[in-house]
Amino acid sequence: IATQYSGASPGIVPLAAAAAGTRSNNGDDDSVLEQARNVAAQSLLGLSGGLIGLAGQSNDAVFGMIIDAVKSDTGSNLLSTPSIMTLDNEQARILVGQEVPITTGEVLGAANDNPFRTIQRQDVGVELEVRPQINTAGGITLAIKQEVSAIAGPVSAQSSELVFNKRQIETRVVVENGAIVALGGLLDQNDRQTVEKVPLLGDVPGLGALFRHKSRNRDKTNLMVFIRPTIIRDAADAQRMTAPRYTYLRDRQLADGDPEAALDALVRDYLRAQPPQLPAAPSSA
Q1: Does the keyword Nucleotidyltransferase feature in the UniProt annotation (predicted)?
Q2: pLDDT of the residue at 104
Q3: Cα(83)–Cα(152) distance, rounded to whole angstroms?
Q4: What whole-number distance in Å separates Cα of residue 117 and Cα of residue 99?
Q5: How far lies 153's CA from each of 23, 25, 142, in Å?
Q6: Which of 11, 64, 99, 265 could form a disulfide with 15 if both were Cys (CB 3.0 to 4.6 A apart)?
């Protein structure tokens, strides 16, 4: 008796065959059964979680059973921090990503050959558009469009058309100088449960669990968008905003063991300027 579910690993058939290979009429292992045992052993090495198995041979009947229980948790924390500087009441835009060609039309010749296609390119990545307006009270009115997009894959195996995942916020808010405001967010949870079973046998109370395979997947997405506008009134404010960012990139490059930060060489050799004055390190008592 052997039960095999689609996508299950290792296969129950090689496990049962390996058990049969432990016995033979002449006392010697058959070469085919020896190979089956090796396949079963290699399959078991790739498993994770709790594993319980049973295999054997009774006269001419070969049976095998294996139970593999595993739970995996995958978490990711994606942080994008686009920043941009612009004048009062002037729109600014920054895009970190790529252009993806999308087929918008196709014309074939008289013999259904020599196709002529029209292509439209679509921006994919992290995009920020903002237009600030400073009011007399020192607050800032922001017209904001924030978008995060990515390619999800083709529509189907038979179609080359692409599906895009897109999260977009477009709004107008009033923020004080230097304050942090949450523009919006999304909490999404998607639960999927799959049951595969042998007809009739999988419905037997109690023993039916031996002929069923269950899987449950849960996808959670927590998306929050924050923004912090800062008014730059003079060169001193610009220097104050530039120095921390320059220091952060410079320290990251020096942490790789390079004798000189590539950022310093870029400013000196290509921009023909001196690097921004770095903030003094705090003195220790």
Answers
A1: no
A2: 81
A3: 26
A4: 17
A5: 50, 55, 34
A6: 64
Question: How far lies 51's CA from each of 10, 15, 31, 135, in Å?
Answer: 11, 13, 27, 67
What is the structure's pLDDT at 189? 82
- Per-position b or e across 32-56, b if 16+ CB within 10 A of its CB: ebeebbebbeebbeeeeeeeebebe
The predicted-structure confidence for 21-35, as pLDDT tens digits, reads as follows 444 444 545 565 566
CA proximity to 49, closest of 68, 29, 62: 68
Residue with tokens 């060169």: 235
Q: 160 exposed, middle or buried (CB, 10 Å; 0-12, 13-18, 19+)?
A: exposed
User: Residue 205: what pLDDT?
Assistant: 87
In a 13 Å sphere around the CA of 100, the CA atoms on its Cβ side amount to: 16
Q: How many DSSP H helices and E strands does the chain contain?
A: 4, 8
Q: Which residues of the chain have pLDDT under 50?
A: 1-8, 10, 12-26, 28
Ramachandran angles phi, psi of 61, nearest 5°: -100, 135
Is residue 75 within 8 Å of 107, Cβ to Cβ? Answer: no
Burial of 266 (0-12, 13-18, 19+ CB in 10 A): exposed
Give the CA angle between residues 226, 231, 232 to the nearest 5°.
130
Could you tell me the end-to-end alpha-carbon distance of the chain, in angstroms, rounded to an integer?
A: 77
Q: Write out the two tokens for 30.
A: 């058959």
